[in-house]
Amino acid sequence: MRRILWLSLILLSAACGVQKELKPIQRFEELSYPYEVKKALLSGGIEVAYVDEGKGVQTLLFIHGLGSYLPAWKKNIEGLKDKYRCIAIDLPGYGKSSKGEYSGSMRFYSEIVAELIDKLKLGSVTLAGHSMGGQISIITALAYPDKVDKLVLMAPAGFETFTKGQKQWFREVMTANLVKLTTVEQIKSNLAYNFYRMPKDARFMITDRIDMRGAEDFEAYCYIIPQCVQGMVDDPVYEFLPKITQPTLIIFGENDNLIPNRYLNPGKTGTIARKGAERIPNATLHLLPKTGHFVQFEKAAEVNGLMAEFLEH
Fold first, then answer.
1. Strand 148-154 to 125-130 pairing
2. Residue 40: inside a domain, yes or no?
3. Could you tell me if 292 and 194 are in contact, meaning their C-beta atoms sit under 8 angstroms apart?
4. Taking the model in full, what pTM does it have?
5. Which of 49, 105, 120, 168 is the most exposed place for a label (fewest CB within 10 A)?
6. Structural domain boundaries enclosing 171
7. Is residue 104 part of a domain?
8. Is 19 inside any structural domain?
């Protein structure tokens, strides 16, 4: 009986702790961001939210991954803004950017990135993309080579290939309803799975994701996730990797739980990473030990150092 009471008190205490951290929001606009947010109005009335920190001859444009947002880059911005201009964006459908029934295709997002570069008069930039953002960066570099000087790919989607049947599986499994009905425990588990060991300062990703559920634009967020999954499988880049002309830095965590897909293509991350990197003419690959999919956050100091070294050459 004492043991049951003791466990009950622990669970109650934990539950109370979670409640104190949660701050339900009415709109995604209320999410707390680490820097001042600006908005760029693009064609079709789409507003792209972005932060713009630091100064320097070179501009870094950070593109987040599936289900994520621009605060995921805060450690990289903080570590690099003293030498470089650092711009991180919320893709349409995410964060504080416009919501709508967008296609979610990688080409749609590459057009958004290209238009934003022109809108902000950035000239040629270094694109830094994580996961899905890596795939968007690759397509942008291929379609608009005059706008992309260098590429930094963090655990990029697109190196792993899928069969026709596997692609159809993704389309059928990932639905807006699945995103909407994700439980608190699943949210915690899903985000923790992105790390080798989830650092305490990454907890905001969990609380923000939980807080989003009550927002009036949450339905739009649930809509865009499966659209993006379909976009990734419908816009493969593996065959086009040899056409990349920009110097490319590739960084993977050796213990990435998401690449390759553990259910469809069981194997080692390093195998996929090397296979993709070898296809890019001017690429450098780094595999960081004891590091997961969210490599730029989990090992921010190492990643920032590799990026600075890459940008100076």
1. parallel
2. yes
3. yes
4. 0.92
5. 168
6. 27-311
7. yes
8. no
Question: What CATH number corresponds to the domain at position 268?
Answer: 3.40.50.1820
Pull the structure tokens for residue 284.
């450098």
Give the C-alpha separation, 252 to 292, whole Å. 8
> Quick one: tokens of 11?
């669970």
Q: Residue 267: which of 170, 153, 159 has the closest Cα?
A: 159
Cα-Cα-Cα-Cα dihedral sign, residues 78, 79, 81, 86 = negative
Q: Is residue 77 part of a domain?
A: yes
**Which pLDDT band holds residue 313 (cuts at 50, 70, 90)?**
confident
Query: Are the C-beta atoms of 89 and 130 separated by less than 8 Å?
Result: no
Task: Classify strands 38-41 and 283-288 as parallel, antiparallel or unpaired.
Answer: unpaired
Using only the alpha carbons of the chain, give its radius of gyration.
19
Q: What is the pLDDT of residues 76-96, one digit of tens each?
A: 999 999 999 999 999 999 999
Secondary structure class of 16 (helix, strand, coil) = helix
Round to whole Å and give the CA distance between 5 and 49: 48
CB 292 within 8 A of CB 257: yes
The domain tally of the chain equals 1
